[in-house]
Amino acid sequence: MEIVYFSFIVFLFMLAVFDLVVGVSNDAVNFLNSAIGAKVARFRTILIIASIGVFVGATMSNGMMDIARHGIFQPQMFSFNDLLCIFLAVMVTDVVLLDVFNTLGMPTSTTVSMVFELLGGTFILSLLKIATDETGLLGFADLLNTDKALSVILGIFLSVAVAFIFGTVVQWLSRLIFTFNYTSKLKWKIGLFGGIATTCILYFALLKGLKDSSFMTPEYNAWIKENTMYLVGGCFVVSTVLMQVFHWCKINVFKIVIFMGTFALALAFAGNDLVNFVGVPLAAYSAYQDFAANGAGQADTFMMSSLNESAKTPFIFLFLSGVVMVYALATSKKAQNVVKTSVDLSRQDEGEEMFGSSRVARSIVRGANNVNEFFSKYTPKPLVRWIDARFNKDEAILAQGAAFDLVRASINLVLSGLLIALGTSLKLPLSTTYVTFIVAMGSSLADRAWSRESAVFRITGVLNVIGGWFLTAGIAFSACALVTIAMYYGGAVVMALFVFVAVFILIKSNFSTKRKDETDYEEQLFKGIMNAKDKAECWDLLKKHVCATQQEMLDFVWKTYEDVVNGFVDEDLKTLRRAVKRIDAEKSRRKKLRQRELVGMRRIDKRISLEKNTWFHLASNSGEQMLYCLKRMSEPCKEHVDNNFNPLSRECIEEILPVKKKIVDYLMRSERIVEDRDYEHIDALLVEEEAYKQQLSEMRRAQEDRIQMDLSQGLKVSLVYLNLLQETQELLSDLRHYLRAFKRFQQ
Description:
The protein has helices at residues 2-37, 43-60, 66-71, 80-104, 110-132, 140-143, 146-178, 189-210, 218-226, 228-248, 253-294, 315-331, 333-346, 359-378, 381-390, 406-425, 432-446, 455-519, 521-531, 535-570, 573-603, 606-642, 650-676, 682-709, 715-746. The chain is mostly helical and 747 residues long. The chain folds into two domains: 2-513, no CATH class; 523-746, Methane Monooxygenase Hydroxylase, Chain G, domain 1 (Up-down Bundle), CATH 1.20.58.220. Keywords: Membrane, Phosphate transport, Transmembrane, Transmembrane helix, Transport. It is found in: Membrane.
């Protein structure tokens, strides 16, 4: 049996590799978003700096490992088999849960998932032990480390409030000092700012981080503690002078601070969050070593008191973890997807919004506007004018394609690094995702990046992300509890089954993501538009993007129209319901794509923009009208079939099916013309369209006569059929307007 347990320990380390890859994909947003958002350097340069920080932080991490050993449960009250069930359930749940969030592009917390998974697994086994305790004296306090668990949970969620307040206040004060036109306001301030930032980064990220590293001796720690003030003071003086000299030498100090902040935040992330990925496997490995040496094969009765000792992690495990994390950071496509969410929600200018609006967000914006008007009313006007002058966004200095400037990027990195490293030094596993994301949101709010035109969308996005965090906690707790109890009663067979299922899901997810990345042509075009420096290149990419999106729209139109007519004729309720849902989803998607293309229209040459603007909007409006036609014809058809009203008469069926076939063929040929940008045949296509409209007019008049003369035909089905003919004719009219506008826009 011992070989079986050893196999599970090996499986745990295999899952730890997956967890490291998935976790780094999720947490890359923590240390990449500021440097990427400010376009401080090429992506490869930023990645190299972050990778060095991750590797150094991983190899120095050790003190946080105790959370997985005895931070949540009382190990002396659990047998080796109990803890093996919990550890396996935690890892299986964790890798699948994080992979789902990464695929959706939603940053979640690896710390929260790990803590609540441990809580869920421990809670369900504690319930079982209490229920089967014959003495009746056993309670949760005997099984759960309630004090430590409560401090960990409070530390995680209180970090959200602390991060938002500090992010807002510090960024507001920084903007008052530097303004958006910061290059003309530096003088002596930049040296002082660089000195403070450098000192803070080195003190918290290095001095505090080194204290618990695997190679630090008590003598080194004692020396650092005795000389802390001298070290901090000397660092401040030297770094202030050095930064001022850099400024005089025309070296951008903000970029230096951002590079240092990226390194320090990556280091703090690895030191704080490594326990989330390898803490559980290492605790399981330590438990197995104790069981193999002293357990005498009695896995159900051998208690794990040895886990009460502090972790002494071998350096080789830390080194290998650092290597895997660096590899994951360099190769993960999902990491870039998660970074995009955070950067888009904190960008300075308006543009494509990833999220819609919600009732809660609208209420928050309305309340904030009322509060702002109240304070503006009673604040002295000269002070208001002075503050407004310091926050003049028209003077903002942004790199090409940057979401925000170097000042905000510096504050985000320095402040996030300080808060995370402070939590690490206090042995509190603060959520790096929560801290960095909320600091970025607080600083963007202070920077007035959330205008009245975008605030409701940004707040909706923030609420969605925060809601995902709480969802993470609930799902992690519940899922791990269920998996733990299944493994407890199912034994080794169920344990192995869950491990293989988790690995299969991860492999399938990563292959499907790779295929999606390779085929997402529109996304690549939009990235090209945003990164293009030449306006002619931008215009060429925009035309290709419009062509691709409109071709997809026409493809959707003919397929949906065919489904609606067939569903109505065949009384196929499932097909009609699916059509109605697809139309609503496509309308929402079209809105986002149009916003993207409007951003592109702003980036092309102004003369071309003025010339093509009318045709762009006319084509977009005509496309939207086609979707509304489909909606107006599909909903009555669905309602009619859903209510089991009379079916369409044989005469009408024989009349509509040949026309449907012609119109579908006509729409398909229109799609191919758009796809090939074959403008020469558009005029001939428009002439053909007139014949179809004339035929539909005759069918409408015939149906109106039937309604009046043929009383045997049900009135409800007659009206639905008449509506179908009217909307089909309107669909062709909208297609006519669309093709003309598309031709004028593309030529």
